[in-house]
Amino acid sequence: MRPPPWRTAALWLVHLLAFAAVTAGLFLRRSPATQVQAVLAYLLIILSASALTQRILGFTLAVLAVILIDFTFQSPFGRLGADGVFDLLVLLAFFAVAIVTTQLLVRARERTEEAEQRSREMAALAEERIELITAAAESRRQAAVERVRTQVLGGISHDLRTPLTTIRALAQDAARSGVAIGVAIDEQAARLEQHVNNMLDLARMRSHTFTVVPVMNAVEDLFGALVRQVRGTLGTRQIRLHVDMQGPPLLVCCDFVQTLRALGNVVDNAIRVTPADGTIDIGTELAGEHRVALWIGDRGPGIPDDEAARIYQPFYRPPSAPADGARAGLGLAVAAELLEQQDGTIAHAPRPGGGTLFTIVLPRAAEDDGALDDSA
C-alpha cells in the first residue's frame, strides 16, 4: 500500500535534513578518520529511508552519499575521483552495500504489507462466511417456524369451523324465536368465522394448496362489486371513485372473487382509520404497458416508518390499536398473499394531505385474452 503523498514528501524532507545535518557535523571535525564515520552515518540514514519509504529515496541517498564521501571526506578533500584503488574499492563497496540493503529492506516491507493485506482479506472473508452461515441458519429456523405455524393455523382453523357453524345455526334459531341475544351471538360468531377462514386460507396459501383462477376482468366491475360489499360498514363515511368512464375499460387478469376479497380487506382497513364523515378515494391508472394500478386512499393517521415493513405480517397490530380483540391483524396479510398468488403486488405510501395511499398492481389483460368473467 503506497503511503499518501504528504507522508512521502515529509519523509524525503526529514532524511535530506538528516543527511545535511550529519554532513555539516562531520565537516566541522573533518579528518582522515572522518571517512569511516561518514560511511556508517550515511548508511544508517539510507537504511532508515529504505525501511520507511519507497526504494527511490534509498537509491538517491546512496548516490548522494558516494558523492559527498568522495568530495568531502576522502582525501584529497574537495575533489571528485578516487585517489587510489583502495579508495575506489571503499566507494564501490559502500554503494553496493547501500543498494543491496535498500533493495532487501524495501522487499521485506512490501512482503510484510502483502501479508498484512492477505491477513485482512482472510479476516474479512471469515467474517463474511460467519455472517452467511448465521443468515442461512436463521433462514432455516424461520422456515421451520413458518412450517409449524402454518400447520398449527391450518389445524386450528379447520377444527374451529364445525363448532362455529353450529353456534351460528343455534344463534340464528334463537333470533328467529325472538331471543334478542341470538342476533349478537350470530354477529360475533360471524366475525370469528371470518377470522378462522382467513387463518385457514392463509395457511393454504403458505403451503401452496390455495387455488386462484386468473381470468380477464374489468376494473369497473371490481369497483362496483367492492362498493356494494362495503356499503354496510361505511357509516357516515363516503367512497369517491376516480374512474374514467369515457375511455375504454381497463382490463386486468385476476381471480375476481379473491381480488375482490383483497380489495375489501384494504378498504375495510381504510374505513377503520378514516374519521367519521371522511372520504375514502378509490381509483385506477395504468402502471406501464402490461400492468394496471388500483389505488385506495384513506385519511387516517398514516403508518409510522418503523411499522411500514410489518403491516403485511399475519397477526400484526400496531401499538396504537385498541385492545378490544375486534381485529386479528390478518386483513392486509391475506390481501398481500392473495395478490401474490395472482402475480400482483401491494404497496403503500404517505398520502398528500394526510393518510395512506395503498396501491395494488395487477397484470393487464388484452381484449383477446378471453371472455370477461361473469362472476361480477
* CATH topology category name of the largest domain: Heat Shock Protein 90
At the fourth level of CATH, the homologous superfamily of the largest domain is Histidine kinase-like ATPase, C-terminal domain
**Helix content bin:** 55-70%
Name of the level-1 CATH class of the largest domain: Alpha Beta
Q: Work out the radius of gyration.
A: 42 Å
- Mean pLDDT rating: 79
Order of helices and strands: HHHHHEHEEHEEHEE
Model regions low in confidence, pLDDT < 50 over at least 5 residues: none
The total domain count is 2
Distance between the termini: 71 Å
Report on this model:
- This protein has 376 residues and is α+β, with helices and mostly antiparallel strands.
- It has two domains: 5-125, no CATH class; 215-369, Heat Shock Protein 90, CATH 3.30.565.10.
- Helices cover 59% and strands 11% of the residues.
- The chain is built from eight helices and seven strands.
- It has helices at residues 5-28, 34-52, 55-73, 85-176, 181-206, 219-230, 256-273, 331-340, and strands spanning 215-218, 238-242, 251-254, 279-286, 291-297, 345-350, 356-363.
- The strands form two sheets. Strands 2-4-5-7-6 form a five-stranded mixed β-sheet, with helices on one face. Strands 1-3 form a two-stranded antiparallel ribbon.
- Strand 6 (345-350) and strand 7 form a beta hairpin.
- Helix 7 packs antiparallel against helix 8 (331-340).
- The radius of gyration is 42 Å and the shape is rod-shaped.
- The mean pLDDT is 79.
